[in-house]
């Protein structure tokens, strides 16, 4: 159920820059993520981590460079040497490949847990019965099958985030992006959410996780990327970046979060 059918979810970010007015939020970022890999992005507030995640599913348009998932240009189609921006409907179709988990869960509060999980699949044409069956299987994965009929607003923060992760999986994405998935949680609820993400880490889906949980990164990440001022200052295996950081900015940052 959790396994991707093939080695899909290869992300290639090539010389991407993004401006907000005159402010350069992303500055010539290049990054390649292998199918099924887990990448943790760390860096101080304002360094461009969320902006980078948002460009990966075209919630932000890049100003320079391009992003590909399994060769498809995100938000664009290529003709010869030119890229043409996709229409909204085509962008939505492309986004099915990319799940997104937000800091504040963003569940639909007026829907039950089950309804939260079947809404997108049904909107994408999955028959209701099939969507429900998959929803129950996903609830099993996040350990919340018994909450199917609960109102999402009645769940704890940790439970809501686990449901949000199940929802991100509902359309069988190739890639899941997590933007500080535990930073809105009380400390005692962080572990249950990280445990679910750890479980996904062995499923074949490509994961990109922005987090300050260095212990989690050490345990789960294949790659760690450190950003400052919209630039990647250092990247490499988690072992290299976390245990033997080369750049003084990385050392300084790690000494403050550890
Ligand atoms: P991080 O997630 O690392 O904290 P962000 O990607 O949110 O950083 O932000 C990077 C920079 O871009 C910050 O200086 C932020 O203020 C700016 N920024 C982000 N989103 C917007 C926006 N929609 N409009 C203007 N500036 C933005
Ligand atoms: Mg952010």
UniProtKB/TrEMBL annotation:
**Compartment(s):** Cell inner membrane
Instruction: List the transmembrane segments.
Output: none
| High-level lineage | Bacteria, Pseudomonadati, Pseudomonadota, Gammaproteobacteria, Enterobacterales
Q: Tell me a GO cellular component.
A: plasma membrane
Q: What is this protein called?
A: Arginine ABC transporter ATP-binding protein
Predominant cellular place of this UniProt entry's protein:
membrane
Which family, according to the similarity comment? Belongs to the ABC transporter superfamily.
Q: How does it sit in the membrane?
A: Peripheral membrane protein
Q: Which UniProt keywords apply?
A: ATP-binding, Nucleotide-binding, Transport
Which InterPro entries has this protein been placed in? AAA+_ATPase, ABC_ATPase_HisP-typ, ABC_transporter-like_ATP-bd, ABC_transporter-like_CS, MetN_ABC_transporter-like, P-loop_NTPase
Q: Which GO terms describe its molecular function?
A: ABC-type amino acid transporter activity; ATP binding; ATP hydrolysis activity
Q: Where does the ABC transporter domain start and stop, copy by copy? A: 11-254
């Amino acid at each position: 159920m959790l396994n991707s059918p093939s080695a899909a979810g290869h992300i290639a970010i090539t010389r991407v820059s993004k401006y907000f007015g005159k402010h350069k939020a992303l500055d010539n970022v290049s990054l390649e993520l292998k199918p099924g890999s887990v990448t943790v992005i760390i860096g101080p507030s304002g360094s461009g981590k969320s902006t980078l995640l948002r460009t990966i599913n075209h919630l932000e348009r890049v100003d320079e460079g391009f992003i590909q998932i399994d060769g498809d240009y995100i938000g664009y189609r290529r003709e010869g040497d030119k890229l043409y921006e996709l229409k909204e409907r085509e962008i939505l179709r492309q986004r099915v490949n990319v799940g997104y988990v937000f800091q504040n869960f963003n569940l639909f509060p007026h829907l039950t847990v089950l309804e939260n999980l079947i809404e997108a699949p049904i909107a994408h044409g999955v028959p209701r019965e099939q969507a429900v069956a998959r929803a129950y299987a996903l609830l099993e994965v996040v350990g919340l099958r018994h909450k199917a009929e609960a109102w999402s607003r009645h769940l704890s923060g940790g439970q809501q985030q686990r449901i949000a992760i199940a929802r991100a999986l509902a359309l069988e994405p190739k890639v899941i992006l997590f933007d500080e998935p535990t930073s809105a949680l009380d400390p005692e609820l962080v572990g249950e959410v990280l445990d679910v993400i750890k479980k996904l880490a062995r499923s074949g889906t490509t994961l990109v996780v922005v987090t300050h949980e260095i212990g989690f990164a050490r345990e789960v990440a294949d790659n760690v990327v450190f950003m400052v001022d919209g630039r990647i200052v250092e990247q490499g295996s988690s072992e290299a970046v976390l245990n033997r950081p080369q750049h003084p900015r990385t050392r300084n940052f790690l000494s403050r979060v550890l």
